[in-house]
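Workshop exercise sheet. Pairs work together: one partner reads the sequence aloud, the other fills in the structure field after running the prediction. Swap roles for the next sheet.
Pair: D.N. / O.F.
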Amino acid sequence: MHNIDDRHDISDYIVKKLDKLANSTTRFKKEFNNLIPYHKERYTYIKTVEKKNAQAMSGVLNATKDVRIFDGLLESDKKFAFNTLDCVNSQCTLFKTLFSKLGQHREKYIKHVKGKKNSAVAMSGILNATKDTSIFDGLLKSDKEFAFNTLDCVSPQYTLFKTLFDKLRQHRRKYIQHIQGKKNTKAMSGVLNVTKDTSIFNGLLKGDKEFAFNTLDCINPTYTLFKTLFDKLGQHREEYIKHVKGKKNGAVAMSGILNATKDANIFNYLLKSDKEFAFNTLDCVSPQYTLFKTLFDKLGQYREKYIKHIQGKKNAKAMSGVLNVTKDTSIFNGLLKSDKEFAFNTLGCINPTHALFKTLFGKLGKQHKNGYVKHV
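Structure field:
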């Protein structure tokens, strides 16, 4: 607790310190709760009556959980109360608690949010916090475009996206046209996930192939939907593969495609067209998956080059996969001679309960065994 007597006003130093912490909920709460009661009251008064600092006031509400303060703000200065609520994270329980306190001011607050910069993001936060779909129904009636923009801001992974999309009813087609116009691939992936309507994706492929590709990128390759849509690519399949190759983290995305489709022909195509990219893709496949063995077997004449590739990248995880697939201890012996540290790291990636670990550990010899124990 700050060592300041009740008779003294709160110092400027403490006020400024709290102001600086206003954006850090946890640190502000800790510092504020260390104040003596009189200083808590003074800080609250300064921020409400004198400074109108909404961010700091949201910190006070978060620290105290005293909804009476918010009730007082609504009575004395509604605009400031609204600005304070804007500063409360809509993911927090506090937001829902304070929003429920709005009562007759609820419609006015919604209008207030609509008038803000990034208002659709804020409105999506309100919907996510309250789960009150009647708010969305009201938006659809009063301002359809704003309702659409709000739905754009809801994560397609959330159940809320499906709930609100189902509310669109006769506006569904217009919403789909809206997200096409905005090139909002994330929202479009949400629509496809909710509707499972592949005809929408077919339409995208015909009308805007690049947008269709970017939408497919947003869908988790482990989902059945990804495989379904990937199969719909037809003649555009090779183009999509080239598209994925050109992306940042393209090899990771490609490994996801291979894991989803189990189509080794794609890997054969990569080996012919871009061997290095094929190698990078295989690096991203978990050595525990059967897919790693399947693709490694497809390397054929490129096996030695791939082994050199992972040696150069010091990819111990991939090397452990190679050893697990081939059971070729001469590879491990070679590593021990050329790069002992890498050999040890590779051995560390192998489950010690597996027979392979015992076999390779037995290859270490006394000197290397002691070195490996120290390494571990």
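Discussion prompt: Confidence is low (pLDDT under 50) at residues 1-7. What would you look at next?
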